[in-house]
Design the sequence.
């Protein structure tokens, strides 16, 4: 069973690269959604069945695979943008940095003192690599929608880490994390709409005038 | 059944009242139109006060104590709240002023004309609740959480009119000052945790560690609580904050929130078993300095609410002096001095919580009528606002410490304490008496100016001439406070009965001298004779004027058309005294003089400036700003770079863990 989980995790890692290497926003959103669904399935493979687990799996798949992508795609259509032009960190350098961070994540995970039942798994390196890819997207892209995607990637990484603890994780914490994410996306959606209406561009680098002089 | 049994427990009722106060503004947030939310909040405030005050009095006079442990899932030890005499005593002002202000707001800050009404009503309740939580908390962490809620709701209340630049900058200064104070308190509770190994408050008189440590605790408490209580020189945030808040908020901030600082100081002092003598000396000298400097600066103000705010610094100075005398008396084995000092301090806490909100409410009515805070634009309001004028007169007499009002009674105790020391071997302490007398004298100058310029004479502007009396919802709380103020002055034993339990809890040794050194009947006699004398004088003068009243133009001294503008202004009234206190405060003139043969319009404006702020603190802050300019480059404005900072920090932490 664990080998299937590991294969899914490798797929997650590949999706990170897909997001890092593309300029098409709709494609990125779909990739992140697929990653969310994969991560939603994972707990069912790793842990024995329980109603609590079933609830987590279903809610994750619904929110990350359905609700959030629909919201973002709608925002993209409203703002009438398709591509991310001239990012701060280009696509090739992003991929190289992503590869670097992924290998760093493996080194880091190997040194981490883990519980014995988690040692063989890819979970920890995949989590760290996804988290760092999220950071990379946040740092490298200009468009507000790409920023939302970066946050989603980061959350996926954090969720992977939480997977190790899913048995111990109270429902409230899980629900709280999901709700946080959803509210975050909502707020970002509203912000994006307002930015595009006011400034006829959703380039966050033009928002630097908001700092205190 | 269980619930009804609990409702019979007065301590539980007090806790219910605290929660009710916190929730009082909630319905208003969800009601869209009309004044219903505000009225509901006032009803909730009155209900909470009706629940709490009888229970508090019952517990305080009956000697009851109670403690509850709330069930929280946080790792900071048991979350204990307790009602002991000290807490109960400080709850009284909260549950007295909060409903009064809430009622007053119905007329002063009505939902119809004020867009910020909802948030003001909500945070008003939250502030009262947070202050009460601070007072009952027995866990350092709970205390700090309530303290922060208190400070932040105070901020949101004071920036109610955030459209104005002055209000916003007052808010920023307040926020910075309260966070600096909060930092000192965090250090205080962290070191308490370090000493006792728990966030729960140590039992009274239980802390006995080597001198340096307790003194550090004391100094941290003095910095943290002193900045909240507006002790000089930590008072810089206070005047502009209290002047720019809506008046019912200033009343709560000035009448009650400053006292929470005093409560904290007394609470921390009560932990320690052996208190060095120099603590008392330090507190007494800080107190006297604040009192004298505060009232000198107050007397030069031309903004009615700023004047009141500086006078709060004076009053808090008097309270601190009392605490200082208590520690001095205790340290030198003089229970009489200890008793008089602490009794004066606690009594004055109660008194100031009555007459300062009274005066702020009156200032609110005056601003309502005249449309300005500037004393030099008022005048002649006594004819237009007869009730407000009368109550403001009561408050002004009380705050100057004159009979027959309550300010006299508490300052009297302090005088007795000072005079009692005159015969001791080392009569340094007795030198406080002339300073206190000086404070009283300057207070009279300041409040004669306030009352005389605002209410007497002729109106200086059209707005002041069109002033109208405040509605009854505003006058009722003012009248109640004035009555309480008179009660405290004529029958001080009524208030002393409330002070006694707290006094015994703080200083068990003073139990021997638990009576006033002056028979209380003399207060009633003194007050009564002042009232009778005033009445007789009034009738006599009235009779003299009546027979020979003539009307006609007076000799104009060469002024052919005298206008109200030739009256004394507040600034000219105070000019002589402010020339004496020039080291503390100076009136800056900004003049565009008349020049040339065809001069353009000339202007003159003036504003009082505090020397400490404008000559010391602001230049220092400017230098610090220049020195730290390189840090500003870190503040880029680029979101991506900020995320890079976070990422770099995360990586460094990961490496460090390895």
Sequence:
């Amino acid at each position: 069973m664990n080998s299937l989980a590991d294969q899914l995790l490798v797929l997650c890692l590949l999706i990170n690269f897909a997001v890092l290497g593309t300029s098409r926003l709709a494609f990125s959103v779909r990739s992140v959604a697929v990653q969310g669904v994969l991560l939603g399935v994972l707990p069912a493979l790793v842990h024995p069945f329980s109603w609590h687990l079933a609830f987590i799996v279903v809610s994750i798949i619904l929110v990350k695979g359905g609700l959030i992508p629909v919201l973002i795609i709608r925002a993209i259509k409203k703002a009438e943008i398709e591509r991310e032009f001239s990012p701060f960190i280009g696509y090739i350098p992003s991929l190289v940095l992503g590869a670097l961070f992924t290998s760093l994540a493996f080194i880091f995970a190997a040194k981490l003192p883990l519980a014995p039942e988690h040692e063989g798994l890819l979970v920890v390196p995949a989590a760290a690599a996804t988290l760092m890819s999220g950071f990379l997207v946040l740092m490298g892209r200009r468009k507000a929608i790409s920023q939302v995607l970066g946050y989603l990637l980061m959350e996926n990484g954090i969720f992977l880490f939480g997977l190790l603890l899913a048995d111990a994780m109270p429902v409230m914490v899980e629900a709280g994390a999901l709700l946080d994410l959803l509210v975050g996306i909502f707020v970002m959606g509203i912000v994006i709409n307002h930015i595009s209406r006011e400034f006829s561009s959703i380039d966050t680098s033009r928002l630097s005038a908001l700092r205190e002089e | 059944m269980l619930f009804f049994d609990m409702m019979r427990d007065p301590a539980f009722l007090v806790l219910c009242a605290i929660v009710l106060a916190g929730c009082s503004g909630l319905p208003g947030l969800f009601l869209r139109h009309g004044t219903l939310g505000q009225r509901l909040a006032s009803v909730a405030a009155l209900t909470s006060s009706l629940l709490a005050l009888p229970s508090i009095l019952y517990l305080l006079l009956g000697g009851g104590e109670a403690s509850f442990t709330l069930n929280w899932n946080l790792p900071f030890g048991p979350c204990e709240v307790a009602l002991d005499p000290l807490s109960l005593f400080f709850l009284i002002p909260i549950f007295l002023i909060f409903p009064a202000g809430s009622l007053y707001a119905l007329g002063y800050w009505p939902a119809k004309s004020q867009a910020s009404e909802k948030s003001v009503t909500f945070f008003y309740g939250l502030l009262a609740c947070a202050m009460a939580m601070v007072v009952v908390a027995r866990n350092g962490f709970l205390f700090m959480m309530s303290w922060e809620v208190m400070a932040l709701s105070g901020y949101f209340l004071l920036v109610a009119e955030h459209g104005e630049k002055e209000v916003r900058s007052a808010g920023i200064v307040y926020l910075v000052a309260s966070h600096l104070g909060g930092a000192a308190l965090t250090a205080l509770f962290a070191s308490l945790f370090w000493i006792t190994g728990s966030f729960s408050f140590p039992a009274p008189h239980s802390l006995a560690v080597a001198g340096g440590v307790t003194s550090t605790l004391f100094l941290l408490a003095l910095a943290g609580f002193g900045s909240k209580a507006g002790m000089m020189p930590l008072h810089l945030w206070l005047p502009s904050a209290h002047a720019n808040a809506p008046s019912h908020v200033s009343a709560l901030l000035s009448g009650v929130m400053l006292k929470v600082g005093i409560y904290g100081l007394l609470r921390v002092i009560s932990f320690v078993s052996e208190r060095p003598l120099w603590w008392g000396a330090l507190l007494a000298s800080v107190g006297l300095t604040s009192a004298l400097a505060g009232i000198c600066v107050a007397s030069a103000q031309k903004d009615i609410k700023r004047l009141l705010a500086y006078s709060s610094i004076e009053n808090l100075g008097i309270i601190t002096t009392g605490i200082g005398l208590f520690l001095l008396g205790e340290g030198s084995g003089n229970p009489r001095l200890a008793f008089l000092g602490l009794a004066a301090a606690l009594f004055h806490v109660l008194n100031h919580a009555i007459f300062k909100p009274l005066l702020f409410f009156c200032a609110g009515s005056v601003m309502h009528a005249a449309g300005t805070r500037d004393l030099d634009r008022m005048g002649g309001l006594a004819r237009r606002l007869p009730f407000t004028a009368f109550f403001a007169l009561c408050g002004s007499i009380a705050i100057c410490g004159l009979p027959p009002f309550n300010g006299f009674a508490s300052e009297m105790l302090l005088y007795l304490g000072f005079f009692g020391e005159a015969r001791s071997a080392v009569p340094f302490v007795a030198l406080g008496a002339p300073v206190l007398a000086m404070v009283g004298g300057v207070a009279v100058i300041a409040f004669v100016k306030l009352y005389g310029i605002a209410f007497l004479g002729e109106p200086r502007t059209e707005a002041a001439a069109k002033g109208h009396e405040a509605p009854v919802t505003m006058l009722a709380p003012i009248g109640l406070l004035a009555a309480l103020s008179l009660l405290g002055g004529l029958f001080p034993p009524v208030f002393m009965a409330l002070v006694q339990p707290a006094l015994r809890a703080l200083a068990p040794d003073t139990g021997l001298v638990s009576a006033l050194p002056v028979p209380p009947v003399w207060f009633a006699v003194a007050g009564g004779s002042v009232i009778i004398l005033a009445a007789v004088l009034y009738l006599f003068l009235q009779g003299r004027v009546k027979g020979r009243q003539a009307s006609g133009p007076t000799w104009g001294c060469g002024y052919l058309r005298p206008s109200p503008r030739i009256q004394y202004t507040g600034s000219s009234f105070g000019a002589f005294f402010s020339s004496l206190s020039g080291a503390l405060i100076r009136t800056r003139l900004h003049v565009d003089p008349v020049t040339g043969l065809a001069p353009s319009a000339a202007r003159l404006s003036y504003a009082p400036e505090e020397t400490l702020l404008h000559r010391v603190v602001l230049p220092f802050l400017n230098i610090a700003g220049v020195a730290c300019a390189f840090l500003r480059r870190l503040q880029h404005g680029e979101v991506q770079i900020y995320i890079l900072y976070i990422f770099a920090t995360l990586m460094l932490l990961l490496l460090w863990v390895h």
